[in-house]
Amino acid sequence: MPPTSARRRGRSIGPVLTELQVEFPDLTVSKVRFLESEGLVTPARTAAGYRIYSPADVDRLRYVLRAQRDRFWPLKVIRDALDALDRGLVPAADTAVDSALPVAPAPQTDMSIPSAAALIAPPGAGSVRLTRAELATAAQTSTTDVDAWASFGLVRADAEGYFDESQLAVARAAGALAAYGFEARHLRSFRTAAEREVGLVDQVLAPLAHRDDQARAEAAAEVAHHCLVLHAALVRAQLAR
């Protein structure tokens, strides 16, 4: 019998067989050994040579057995599917399709990126209006920084000299970067990039000029949302290099 420490990490073939036989009554030890010899499952071994199956090994066996029983997949297709799962793909949602090989994971919602609806939503009735000093306080910086940002077009006051919620978001982000030594002149490239992206959106959506204002605004917001998703994905990809 495997040592107690090994048993805590996994199980021997007996308990695993008992569990799987609930769904696969004809399963035998020799069948499990055959799947192992084909490289479809590779249980760990103790110092004494006992095979120990982890929960992941049991799930892998169950996947193989279901693929054989329900989809009649040959071992080569199963091996390719397992390789895909090992590379981070996930089982296809449409399990009723016999050829439903693993697929790329569904996109995860990034809560830090505003949705198209949020981009197009008008300010609420109680939308904030901040003075220059209040904006500096909210951004945890000085009015000197606010003036510098304004000189480079990063923040803009309205006709009455107040800053709205969108300007507050810019100021807070700029203030956070200022703590790392980013000056207003460094941040100008972000403003320029944003202007270029919006200009590109306008250019691509030019054929929609015949639509009403609401339809154009909704389309522009949807495209802008995907631009933000792309930008975030590109930055993450660069950081991962």
Description:
The chain is mainly α and 241 residues long. The chain has 2 domains: 4-86, Multidrug-efflux Transporter Regulator, Chain: A, Domain 2, CATH 1.10.1660; 116-240, Multidrug-efflux Transporter Regulator, Chain: A, Domain 2, CATH 1.10.1660. It contains 11 helices and 2 strands; from the N terminus they run H-H-H-E-E-H-H-H-H-H-H-H-H. The protein has a two-stranded antiparallel ribbon. A hairpin with a 5-residue loop joins strand 1 (44-45) and strand 2. Helix 7 (132-138) crosses helix 8 and helix 10 (184-204) packs across helix 11.
Notable traits:
single chain, 241 residues, mainly alpha, Multidrug-efflux Transporter Regulator, Chain: A, Domain 2, 2 domains, two-stranded antiparallel ribbon, 11 helices, 2% strand
Topology of helices and strands:
Layout: H1 4-9, H2 13-20, H3 29-37, E1 44-45, E2 51-52, H4 55-71, H5 75-86, H6 116-120, H7 132-138, H8 143-151, H9 165-178, H10 184-204, H11 213-240
Helix pairs in contact: 7-8, 8-10, 10-11
Q: What structural class do you assign from the helix and strand content? A: mainly alpha
Task: Please indicate the percent range of residues in DSSP E strands (runs of 2 or more).
Answer: under 5%
Low-confidence stretches: none
At CATH level 2, the architecture of the largest domain is Orthogonal Bundle
Helical residue percent band: 55-70%
Counted by DSSP, the helix tally is 11
Quick take:
The chain has 241 residues and is an all-alpha fold. Helix content is 56%, strand content 2%. It has two domains: 4-86, Multidrug-efflux Transporter Regulator, Chain: A, Domain 2; 116-240, Multidrug-efflux Transporter Regulator, Chain: A, Domain 2.
